[in-house]
Write a structure and sequence with these properties.
This is Purine-nucleoside phosphorylase. Keywords: Glycosyltransferase, Transferase. InterPro entries: Nucleoside_phosphorylase_sf (IPR035994), Purine_phosphorylase (IPR011268). It is a single chain. This protein is an all-alpha fold. It has one domain. Helices cover about 25% and strands about 0% of the residues. It contains 2 helices and no strands. The chain is globular and about 35 Å long. The termini are far apart. About 0% of the residues are buried. The chain binds 2-acetamido-2-deoxy-beta-D-glucopyranose. The site of 2-acetamido-2-deoxy-beta-D-glucopyranose has 4 residues, from helix 1. 2-acetamido-2-deoxy-beta-D-glucopyranose binds next to helix 1.
Length: about 70
């Protein structure tokens, strides 16, 4: 497996681990996900039932400098 934090990864197996980890952390089962850049973070303000994760906690997830 690639080292955590490498900017370029991921095999299908890596993604499966990421998915499994996320599903383990939450009871939410979303059908759609939106990744917002730093300019679109306001979209999240309007969300109800929200749950947040730190990028560095998510396995195989590239860590961004933006929020
Ligand atoms: C998800 O939870 C199951 C059951 O607790 C555990 O066996 C598995 O290792 C967890 N997977 C991850 C990726 O955390």
């Amino acid at each position: 497996m690639h080292t955590k934090g490498s900017s370029c990864c991921c095999s299908f197996e890596d993604y499966k681990l990421t998915t499994e980890w996320l599903l383990n952390q939450t009871r939410h089962r979303p059908k759609v996900a939106v990744i917002c850049g730093s300019g679109l973070g306001l979209l999240a303000e309007g969300a109800t039932n929200k749950q947040t994760f730190r990028y560095q906690d998510i396995p195989n997830f590239p860590v961004s400098t933006g929020e």
